[in-house]
Design goal:
- It is a single chain.
- By secondary structure, the chain is α/β, with parallel strands linked by helices.
- The chain has one domain (7-310): UDP-N-acetylmuramoyl-L-alanine:D-glutamate ligase (3-Layer(aba) Sandwich).
- Helices cover 35% and strands 26% of the residues.
- It has helices at 32-42, 57-68, 136-148, 167-180, 188-195, 200-207, 247-261, 274-291, 301-313; strands spanning 7-10, 14-20, 23-30, 47-54, 71-79, 83-91, 97-104, 122-126, 152-156, 183-187, 213-217, 223-227, 230-234.
- It has a nine-stranded mixed β-sheet with strand order 5-4-1-8-9-10-11-12-13, sandwiched between helices. Strands 3-2-6-7 form a four-stranded mixed β-sheet.
- Strand 12 and strand 13 (230-234) form a beta hairpin.
- Helix 1 crosses helix 7.
- The protein starts with 6 loop residues before the first strand and ends in an 11-residue tail after the last helix.
C-alpha cells in the first residue's frame, strides 16, 4: 500500500473550452498542474493544489470539481477583483491544441497561508505560472521553502511558443527553477525552444550543471530518461489520439505516482536503478496514453479504479529497492 507522503502542485488555473472544427465540444477545468492534481486525486493520493482563481461562476465550478476529485484547495487564492482565466483550446486534425487565453487578473497574487510542506513530500510545478514576473516572488519563496524542508521537486517548463519573443526575460527564471528541481521533465519542443537542443543528450547537457535527472518526452517517439551517466528509453503506445491537451500533465502525474509507489525520495533518488527509471517513464506513458483517448484532461475515474485494483494485486511491480 502506498505511504501517505503528500503531493503539492503549483500552477495556473483555467477553464478550458475545447473547440474542434470551430465548434465547442467540451468545457472543463484546466491548467497544467491542475490536470495533474485531478489525476492524482482520483488515484487517492493526498494532493494539495497551490494556485489562484476568481471568486466567480467559473471559479466556483472549478472549486467544486477539485473538491469532488479529492484535491485539497486550502492553498488556492480566490480573488474578487478579477476573473477566472478562460482558455480556448482549438484541436487540429492531429488532435493537438493551440490556445488563446482571456484574463482579467487581480492586483495582488497568492495571498495564501504558507504550505505545510514536509520532508518526503513531492512538489510538482511548472508552466507559465512558475516564470510569471508578477508571481515570481511568492512562487520562489514556496519553492525554496519546499527544498529546504527536504521535499522532492519535479519541474516541467512547458514553455509555449507564444512566449518565444520573451524568452530572454523568462530564461533566468527557468534556469533558477531547474537549479531547484530534483527532476526536470520536459518535451522535445520545450528544450528546442528554450535551449536549441535537438536530442535528449543535448537537452541533458543544457541542464546538467543544475540538475542531474532528466525525463525527455518526444510525443509518439517515446521517452528518454537520463540519470547522470545512465540513460534509458521507453516507447510510446501506438494510438489515434482524441485530444492531447492533458497528455504531458497526466504524464507528470504518472511520474509523481510512480515516485510515491516506489518510495523514492530526495535521499535515495541518486541510487535508484535503471529498471526503476523505466517504471517511472512507463507509468507516465500509461497515464498519458489513457488521457489522449478522451476529452478530459485527466485519467478517467474508471481507469483510476482499474489501475489501483490491478496494482494492489500485482506483486511483480517494482518496489523501493535502490542501489547499494
Amino acid at each position: 500500500m502506498m505511504n501517505q507522503r503528500k503531493v503539492y502542485t503549483l500552477g495556473e488555473t483555467v477553464y478550458d473550452i475545447i473547440f474542434k472544427e470551430m465548434q465547442p465540444i467540451r468545457g472543463i477545468a484546466g491548467g497544467a498542474t491542475l490536470n495533474s492534481s485531478v489525476t492524482l486525486g482520483r488515484l487517492g493520493v493526498p494532493v494539495h493544489f497551490i494556485s489562484e482563481f476568481g471568486n466567480d461562476l467559473l471559479g466556483n465550478y472549478v472549486s467544486g470539481f477539485l473538491h469532488e476529485n479529492g484535491v485539497d484547495i486550502s492553498g488556492v487564492y480566490r480573488y474578487t477583483d478579477g476573473a477566472t482565466t478562460l482558455s480556448i483550446a482549438s484541436l487540429d486534425n492531429k488532435s493537438n491544441a493551440c490556445y488563446n487565453f482571456y484574463q482579467i487578473m487581480p492586483k495582488e497574487h497568492l495571498l495564501i497561508p504558507f504550505p505545510d510542506v514536509q520532508a518526503g513530500d513531492i512538489l510538482l510545478f511548472g508552466s507559465f505560472f512558475a516564470i510569471s514576473p508578477i508571481l515570481r516572488k511568492p512562487v520562489l519563496e514556496i519553492l525554496k521553502f519546499a527544498k529546504s524542508q527536504g521535499a522532492l521537486l519535479v519541474y516541467d517548463p512547458n514553455f509555449r511558443l507564444s512566449h518565444k519573443d520573451q524568452l530572454e526575460t523568462f530564461r533566468p527564471y527557468m534556469l533558477e527553477n531547474i537549479a531547484l528541481a530534483d527532476i526536470v521533465r520536459g518535451s522535445d519542443e520545450d528544450f528546442y525552444h528554450i535551449f536549441g537542443a535537438k536530442t535528449p543528450d543535448e537537452a541533458f547537457k543544457s541542464i546538467s550543471d543544475q540538475c542531474h535527472q532528466l525525463i525527455y518526452t518526444s510525443s509518439h517517439n517515446g521517452v528518454t530518461w537520463i540519470h547522470s551517466a545512465e540513460k534509458g528509453f521507453v516507447p510510446s503506445r501506438k494510438i489515434n489520439p482524441v485530444s492531447t491537451i492533458g497528455a504531458g500533465d497526466t504524464f507528470n502525474a504518472g511520474v509523481v505516482y510512480s515516485l510515491l509507489e516506489q518510495d523514492i525520495t530526495v535521499e535515495n533518488l541518486t541510487k535508484i536503478t535503471a529498471s526503476q527509471w523505466d517504471e517511472i517513464a512507463l507509468t507516465g506513458v500509461d497515464f498519458a496514453t489513457e488521457v489522449c483517448m478522451q476529452y478530459e484532461n485527466y485519467i478517467s475515474k474508471e481507469f483510476a479504479r482499474t489501475w489501483m485494483d490491478r496494482r494492489s494485486k500485482d506483486s511483480r511491480r517494482i518496489g523501493p529497492t535502490v542501489k547499494e
